[in-house]
Amino acid sequence: MYLIPSLIMFGCGVFGFITRKNMIAILISLELMLNSVDINFVVFNRFLYPDQLNGMFFALFAIAIAAAETAVAIAIIINVYRVAKKVDISEITKLKF
Amino acid sequence: MSFDFSILVLAIPFFMFLFLGLVGVKMGKKITGVVGTIAMGVTLFICYSIAFTYFFGTDQGQISAEGVRQSVLAYDWNWLTFTDKLVVKLGILLDPISAMMLIVISTISFLVHLFSLGYMSDEYGKPEKGFQRYYSFLALFTFSMLGLVVATNIFQMFIFFEMVGVSSYLLIGFYYTSPAAIHASKKAFIVTRLADLFFLVGIMILSYYTDTFDFNALMASPESALSSAHGQTFMGCSVMAWALTFIFIGGAGKSAMYPLHIWLPDAMEGPTPVSALIHAATMVVAGVFLVARLFPLYVLEQGSMNIVLVVGAFTALYAAAIACVQSDIKRALAFSTISQIAYMMTALAVSSAPGVGEEGGLGYMASMFHLFTHAMFKALLFLCAGAIIHAVHSNENSHMHGLHKFMPITSIAFLIGCLAIAGIPPFAGFFSKDEILVACYEKSPLWGVWMAIVAGMTAFYMFRIYYLIFHWKKHEVKEGHHAPHDMQWTMTLPLIILAVISCVAGFIPFGKYVTADGQALHTHTNWPVAISSVCIALVGIGLATKMYFKENDLPSKLKSKFNGLWTAAYNRFYMDELYQFITHKVIFQKVCKPIAWFDRHVIDGTMNLLADMTTSASFAIRKMQSGSIQSYVLYYFLGAIMLAAVTMVIVLI
Amino acid sequence: MDSVGNLIIYAIAAIAIIAFSILAVTTKKILRSATYLLFTLLATAVIYFQMDYEFLGAVQIAVYAGGIVVLFVFAIMLTHKPGKDAEPLSSHKKWLGVGAAFAGAAVCAGALFSYGKFCCAKLLPGSGFDIKEIGSALLDTDKFGYLLPFEAISILLLACIIGGVVIARRR
Amino acid sequence: MEIFSNILIYFVIVPLLTLAGLALCRNKGIGAIRTVAVMGASALMILAITLVVMFLKERGAGNNAEMILTASWTWYAPLNVKLALGVDGVSVVMILLSAFIVFAGVFASWKMDPLPKQFFLWFFLLSTGVFGFFISIDLFTMFMFYEVALIPMYLLIGVWGSGNKNYSAMKLTLMLMGGSAFLMLGILGIYFHSSADGNLTMNVLEIAQNNAIPENWQLFLFPMTFVGFGVLGAMFPFHTWSPDGHASAPTAVSMLHAGVLMKLGGYGCFRVAIYLMPFAASQLSWIFLTLTGISIVYGAFSACVQTDLKYINAYSSVSHCGMVLFAILMFNQTAMTGAVLQMLSHGLMTALFFALIGMIYGRTHTRDIRDMGGLMQIMPFLGVGYVIAGLASLGLPGLSGFVAEMTIFVGSYENADVFRRVLTILGTSSIVITAVYILRVVGKLLFGAVQNEHHKQLTDANWFERLSTTTLMVSVAIIGCFPNFFVDIIRDSFVPVVNALSDFFPVVIR
Amino acid sequence: MDYSQFLIMPQEIGLLVVFLLVFLYDTFMPDRCQKALPTFTTALFGLYTVFSFFPVHSGMAFAGMFESSDATWAMKAILNVGMLLVLLQSIKWANSEFVAVRRGEFYELLLLTLFGMFLMVSARNMLLFYIGLETASLPLAALAAFEKNHYESHEAAAKYMFTAIFSSAILLLGMSFVYGLAGSFDYNVLASALGDKHSALLIAAVAFVVAGVGFKLSLVPFHLWTADVYQGAPTAVTSYLSVISKGSAAFAFLVILVQVFGTVYADVWKWMLYAIIILTITIGNLFAVRQRNLKRFLAFSSISQAGYIMLGIIAANTLGMTSMMYYILVYIFSNLGAFAVIAAIERQTDKVTIDDYNGLFKTNPWLAFTMMIAMFSLAGIPPFAGFFSKFFVFAGALKTADTAVYILVLIALINTIISLYYYLLVVKAMFIRQDECSIPTLKSHWSEKTGMILCAMGIILIGLVSCIYTFLNGVAENSSSLFNLI
């Protein structure tokens, strides 16, 4: 039961990634996905293996990594913005086929 | 006297072939011809001494206590091992027929060599282009033919069959710039090749069951050879009958039996001496020789023998009929040859086994006898024709007429030849033909009458040719041309020699030397047959004299009266057209071309299609790489989901 | 622990997560989207707290809500002129997205709920981890020690810093 | 080192040294390049003749081992891959053949232009592959050398070829490599079933000794290997690379390809497919017999209507090589011996053909027989050479073709079952069709009137062309005249395979 | 609290030392010395590579989180060799006009990503693996964006980054499922805890882990970023991405699959890989057929090569593992050989399409030669190393004695024909096309030359010298306990 929000959150993330055009919005969707997975870890840890802490630690590290990822991603987005003057994902499709 | 030197018979011509072919080009033309002729003379001498030693030598024990003439195995080398038992050997086997053939071949070959010295030169005695090549090929042919007759086993015979075919091809195509010659040589080769195919199959069947190629082993007990197939049959006939029939077809190809005869008339495109040598005297009798070689087997397998008989008899009549109307003298002679060879074939076919009845083996003897005499007088006729053609530069008898005054020697020689072939005593043809007719009557009166009619036709058409060449009307010398005249001695000498032989050969006691079982066969003249055959011949000659001696309109009247028959015969009953249709229209157009098309479009097309499919698949999936991250991720995610879902479905359900 | 109160708090948090997640990915205004994200993250932190993982909840708030969302806001400010809406979504894409999301959720849900262990699991009383324990575990090398990941992630962060510098430099 | 005491290894070392020597030559130094190439080719020839002598001596001394001069050094221990060398009669004559053709090929490409150095480099790389293949008895090295021999073809045709060379080169390479893809699977399959007790081996002799490949696996692996090699052996319907490839290839490459490379196919079919998997061979032979039977007749018929000289010979090769595979599938000593003779014969004669065609093409700049005629008057040497090649091809006794075909036919007929006999007789018919197309070409090309006035100025062969073709002509004649010399070398090599087959197939050994 | 445990990882520490020295050099050396930075780094790394060849102690550290064994040691050594080649090839590029200001960061990032890969290779814990994976992939986005003056570079970086984060989310999802099933992250514990029960959750977990790692390996259908990124990124980065990153991921993938999911090999992931391999090889090939841009072309070729590498994994035996490592080694040399040529030409002429290479042999024979043997090696033509590696990979796969795998190998083999086709297209352009070459005769920098010579020698020698394979086999045999669960 505790996993339902996480699942929905993940689904929202996927949905957002696929549908949104704004790169920042896409990054937000990705954050949702990462966050939902963290919930998974924690819930599994708490409910199934309450005598350990490794799920929690994993979530901890995952949060840190997610933060790093976001930082790099935002840097790239800004970079793209500088070149393309837009943050629209449909703009960066020059490399294809 | 030993037969060790017999190898020279093969070695000299072969060496001459290489020598003249490789070195001769650098030598003078005349010298080449002379060297070739002298070498042939040496071969001739050796052949004669072999034959003499074989027939008359007594110290070798060739004649056993029972009076049977043994065959001598002078050489036998392993040449090619098929299996432990089936080994192809090359060697020299001397027995009556091979010794006889040695004489025939070497004689004619020598004379042709001699004759060609003149024939192959222009009017001023300057040798033609390719003179060396010509002599080289002649030597090759002589080698092959000699190798054929001395073959110790059936495979060696096949080998030399092929060799003979090739040298014949080369000689027919000697004038290689002429399309007709190319065509004729090709035709000759392919038709005989087709026959050889059957020969080969026959050999394979025969050797499979008998486990040997060797003539001596086969002949030692023909009954056991035939029974080695253990009564196996194929399509109702015993396999041995099949084998022998196939082998006969091989022989029929070389011997121009109907329906494989079509190459021979065309082969007349070659130089005339070549026709004399190959297409009159030697190569064309290879088939007869083959059947004679295997005679002990054939005689036990009457089914095959009957086929030989029917084919032979039919061909004799058929060819004779065509010969009656040909205007090209060489073609006429060619059909005459076909007819005569069919005569020999028939003689073999009607022969009973030696020792059966009073005349057992008579047909065999007669056939060989006729082979011998025919070779002589037919070579004579061809060489005469050669002399004539050389003089008037044409093959058509319409360009000749009335040459008797210009070329007396040739005329007389030709007349002797005609008399010999017509079977007028005392010329050679009479004796041999008479024996054949006797043998045919022995078999059945039907065949006797049949062959007698053919004999009459022979007399008719030969004299028709003779009259049309030498009489009919006065010869018109075209402007700018020399009047025809008799040739220099190298050309007339062979004519004279052959004419003499044609006169006297009939008196050779052939039955004493050449018989089916090696025992002397005592013949006696069958007077009714002899007289009747002479009468029929005389009727034929008379008819010809009536029609063709002086210029008159009887022939054209008859021609218009029997126009259909005449035209059909003139066109050789359309056999060539039939072949043409089958080869070009059916095989070439309906088999080869579709196969080639199929190959390029279907087989190759499939391969190209595979390549094209790859490329188009490559283009079809191009859209996958659309450049948009979102679609990439969609693929990614769906891929992962599918991976999970499908595996779940497969594993858990 | 397993009290009605807890349940209610959980329900509120769960509903908040679900609602704000959906809003975050559907709203047209990008700044609102970031705001909804913030709420989602906070609601998640609530759940962590409820499960006695106070430290994790604090990190969640500090790093995620405090750090990342601020970063987002900055990025949005840098790249967007205020008041501009995002373009409407093409319905084609939307259905694709919905389909994919549902398919994914369905497969995961199917997988999770077919594994019976979770359905009957009860929230057991927490054994009460304190910060000190967590701290020592982070620097421990033994079992349940996280020294190596700790060091490794520091290198990762260093790498990201260098990377960020590289990317952000104008030249 | 011990490895250098075996003569066989020199068949790889010499070409490699030649490669090195060529690499040291300057690009423009045509004299040096030729010298090195001729030295390499001559050395190979001498080696090959020495090998034959050694072989005869060994056999004469009563060494009846299946393979002689065997030696092996471990190469890849984990897979038990060894550099295993050894020859039996078949490989000896194949090596001899290859040496002759390489020799003739060097002279045939005397005036190669452009990039002579690169040409000879690839040429000798190809030779390395060929010799390596024949001396190996380890599946891995065999396969490796096999591919080494294939790939230079691409560049040799692509760079130095003519006509539609890009397409042909690609097609040839891809099809042959397609075959080798199947082959690789087959070889690996054989390897993994090579032993019942887990001592897997790649050595052909050991695999045959173990005889451990399960029957159902044989049924799977046999087609793989047979088709794999069969593609190179131009088996119907995988032969279409041959016409295009040959048509585009430069002279020496056509020679080497038809002369030697295609033999790799036949040799491999025998050595790997049939020898190692007798059960499947006997079970499935009917399929491949039918295909090869079709090849024989089909190739011959196709050749009848072609107008490009090289196409004619390519199709003729399809027919002749079909006969090789056909004979191998007849499973008796005689037919298999015939197959090897046919490989020899076809190798030399086709090489001769292609050499002559190349020389004619080099003069007339056309290969269409409709545009040529009467060449015999203009270039008698080449004309005579062509006639000799043609006669060898249509089976004139005294030249090699006859010997080979007769051995095949007689051997094939030794089989008692009707199916094989019917096919044999069908196959025999090819001798007539062959005659048809050969005579057609000879008639149109050499005889008749000169079709093109420009051709009258053309010259006959130069000394190196004469040397190249004469070598081949003499070899053709030697095989044709003294076949038993070769038969004696070859024949006993088939005893093991026939024995292995006789467990499954009513082989008539007589 | 036993810090001496760090001593079990000398290769990682050595790498960090190199990194530190480069960092210090970059930060504190005066500007005039900065030009020597690439050479300095390369030399230093060369020394380190030699050092990394010294055997290490086998053993586990950090409570089983980190494993050092002969296999990991060998794998890292292989990666080091590849890294050295990449560094060599990039010296000239790193000093070029637009890159020079950031060259220090370039090397630092490369070294740090390599460190991440080492962690992946040695990790025996999901957490460590994940951190390693991220360390190996996040900085690469920065590297991809390195050529600021090229728009493509930015696009490549963005595509890489988004896909990377998405894939890491998927991977995490898979890991969370694993955790839910077994309650641990240690491979050893997981293996026993998972058991051989196939629950839907386990299958989903495997699928997501495969998808997550498949991103790094660019397996189809997780490969779509590959071509765009390879094309857009600087060539030095592309070559790094295509070999080093892929090689390390493959090894880590093998370890995870056989050690963690070993119990469900036959039923679950074998078939997943089966499908993925077929797709990867085929689709990679089909895309490569039509490419005109060489970098993009090599991207697709590397996708299909990844499929062949997977054959070593699906084998799940020591032979397969050996072959896979060997394949990676050979692949490093072959691909880097090709990239060296491309980079050298691109640097001087900015030409990267196949048509530009027409007639290259005439103007630049050695470049053409190197490219040709690289292509032949990639296509698997003897006597070049690619042939051996392909053969051994197939051998490894077939050792499973499974009929299905035979069919798989057959499909792979048929695909080699397609691949041969497109590799030959390059050869054709260079050797056969007779057009006027648009590339003038070039003079390569010594570093590029050295790189190419090393690659060419590697391509020729690695196959012929059997001791390398034999040695790797010995290494894999020592790790045969990995396959206990299969």
What can you see in these coordinates?
The complex is a heteropentamer of chains A (97), B (653), C (171), D (510) and E (486). Chain A has one domain (3-91): Helix Hairpins (Orthogonal Bundle). Helices cover 75% and strands 0% of the residues of chain A. Chain A is built from three helices and no strands. In chain A, helix 1 runs antiparallel to helix 2 (23-48) and helix 2 (23-48) packs antiparallel against helix 3. The mean pLDDT of chain A is 88. Chain C has 171 residues and is mostly helical. Chain C has helices at 4-26, 30-50, 54-79, 91-114, 131-138, 147-168. In chain C, helix 1 runs antiparallel to helix 2 (30-50) and helix 2 (30-50) runs antiparallel to helix 3. The longest helix of chain C has 26 residues, at 54-79. The radius of gyration of chain C is 20 Å and the shape is globular. The termini of chain C are far apart. Chain D has 510 residues and is mainly alpha-helical. In chain D, helix 1 (10-24) packs antiparallel against helix 4, helix 13 (309-328) runs antiparallel to helix 14 and helix 14 packs antiparallel against helix 17. The relative contact order of chain D is 0.10. The mean pLDDT of chain D is 87. Chain E is mostly helical. Chain E has one domain (3-485). Chain E is 76% helix and 1% strand. Chain E contains 20 helices and two strands. Chain E has a two-stranded antiparallel ribbon with strand order 1-2. Chains in contact: A-B, A-C, A-E, B-C, B-D, B-E, C-E, D-E. At the B-D interface, strand 1, helix 5, helix 6 and helix 25 of B face helix 7, helix 10, helix 12, helix 17 and helix 18 of D.
